[in-house]
Amino acid sequence: MSKEAVESAQATTQPQVAAAPADAGDAGYSKDLKARHVNMIAIGGAIGTGLFLGAGGRLHNAGPALALAYLVCGVFAFFVVRALGELVLYRPSSGSFVSYAREFLGEKGAYVAGWMYFLNWSTTGIADITAIALYTHYWSMFTPIPQWVLALIALAVVLTVNLISVKVFGELEFWFAIIKVATLVGFMLIGIFLLATQHDVGGSKPGLSVITDHGGVFPHGLMPVVLVMQGVIFAYAALELVGVAAGETAEPEKVVPRAVNSIMWRVGLFYVGSVVLLALLLPGSVYSADQSPFVTVLSKIGVPAAGDVMNLVVLTAAMSSLNSGLYSTGRILRSMAMAGSAPKFTRVMSRSQVPYGGILLTCAVCVLGVGLNYLVPSKAFEIVLNVASLAIISTWVIIMICHVIFVRRARAGLVTRPHFQLKFSPVTEIATVVFLLVCLGMMWNDEEVGRKTLLLIPVIAVMLVVGWFGIRRQVAKDAAKASAELPQ
Predict the structure, then answer these.
(1) What is the pTM of this model?
(2) Could you read off the pLDDT of 380-391 as tens digits, one per residue?
């Protein structure tokens, strides 16, 4: 064969290897998210109420070993986001992992991935509006207002922001993240100063003696540390938002690697660093689930209005989470609707290129949460939090399975891996999936909450099966239509 013939053959075959199937759900979006928006969305996903509020109860239960739990879960969370980042660079999509599940697992995989993610964010949204109402009640001027009314107001405000444009969403999320980062940095500087000067904190000197004199790193043994893993994983939920946001940025190949790589040091600095400082300043028994651990420390050293400031920050974190949930589910549901596995109205977009149908559907579920706040205001947060944790674990597992199949296809020469890769595949993916499933299984040891949560799995499975039989004909019809429209 001549040299010209070889070059001609390479020219015709190479695009077939590198090209990726387009997702119909990606059409029509603007590219208005800038690098600073995506970077701050990544930070916002890594820092939320799980740290600002949830760390107090977990420190009380697990002690200083909570820092180890955050570190271990943070490493596996980084693996998930790194795998998703590679898939994003292979083919950016606003449908994110649902779009990749469709490509590598088929429509059933995309259906399960999408609706479990919707379950995650719709229930998280209920938890967020519940938290916002509870935090607002902290100030006496809001106490007379019923919890459900405050929850409804919060939902209306964030819905309005999401419906305007993606640029407004990105800008709001940028400033939400700035507030959270500035607060954490400020607290860490205060904590380091207290340690360096041996300033009195709550009647004792801070330092290693605070840990060694109160039971050591594992004051209550290993099991409490294992049991808090579920909550720690939930604290990292939203890191996968980077993959969704990449579909609406002009240069994902530049923005995504930078955002993903920075997640690891942020986890180490903000989560692990903060918990270590908290453990060195006060014994774990002093912290509680109903107060931010940062407020506990600041009140012990007499900082005026510490509770007001931190309550405002925690309120911001909850608003940020709700904002992100409406944004991501709108995009995910549109990707599903274009394939027939979500209601048709969720595929519609506004003139400002916002998929408002999916956003409104998520909002409708959150309105049910407003009803939950009316019926059982004291239990609303706990009920939905456990459902959301099941959904986020399933989402992460699906991302890792998709990545394993992607790498397998790349080794077979069917697709091309980008330069930004998850190392040591498939060992990394298998280890991550096993870790997540073990955390899920260990919840059985928690009779009060964890066991009831696991009993929801067969209920959710039945609902998914019934739903699939209800929409499978529409999925097949849309798939046949899409195939017929492809150029021959």
Answers:
(1) 0.86
(2) 566 667 778 888
